[in-house]
Design brief:
13 strands; 6-stranded mixed beta sheet; 7-stranded antiparallel beta sheet; 183 residues
Length: 183
């Protein structure tokens, strides 16, 4: 073989190897249904994108932790001590709600927020801290019917209104199901 043919053969082999490695890496990352990779890590907060199905994630110790969901919603936890808390955040459909919604409400979106400490789900955040759940990705849907955020906790027996602001950000010291509705 002459040197030009040998060089072309090596280039071909290297290109095939690179394509194979890229394909393997793509398969590995696409099968990881839940990625917890900080998007931004500032001095006071860490932002974690949520892609795929739900899973358990650790809160950042000593920082505000913001979880960004595929659809544009966000769930934010303030700096919470102790640092051994984990969370499970799962967007859910109307068919997955724990109970029927009150009459004359229209389902828009819902998210389940579970906080885990020592392997057990807890109903209330420690130190009177509040989780914030953003439904801001639905702000364009505001029309003649006002929007409300409802909450159902594991210990609850009925839907409760949750305080929220003009940016469709709800605040609660409890965990559970949060639903954006129109009435």
């Amino acid at each position: 073989m002459n040197s030009i043919t040998l060089r072309k053969t090596w280039i071909f082999v290297v290109v095939i190897l690179v394509i194979g490695i890229v394909a393997i890496v793509g398969v590995v990352f696409s099968t990881n249904m839940f990625k917890q990779t900080p998007l931004a890590d500032r001095a006071d907060q860490v932002v974690v994108p949520i892609t795929g199905s739900s899973g358990t994630m650790s809160l950042s110790c000593g920082k505000t932790t913001i979880f960004e969901m595929d659809g544009g919603g966000k769930v934010s936890f303030p700096k919470i001590e102790p640092c051994d808390l984990s969370v499970i955040i799962k967007p859910i459909e109307m068919t997955e709600l724990p109970s029927s919604l009150p009459e004359e409400t229209v389902f828009i979106d819902a998210t389940t927020v579970t906080v885990v400490q020592d392997g057990m789900a807890i109903d209330t955040l420690p130190e009177n801290k509040k989780v914030s759940i953003s439904f801001a990705n639905h702000a364009q849907e505001i029309d003649e019917k006002p929007m409300y955020v409802l909450h159902w906790s594991e210990t609850g027996e009925d839907w409760q209104d949750v305080a929220f602001d003009s940016r469709l950000m709800a605040y609660s010291n409890e965990t559970g199901v949060f639903v954006l509705v129109k009435r």
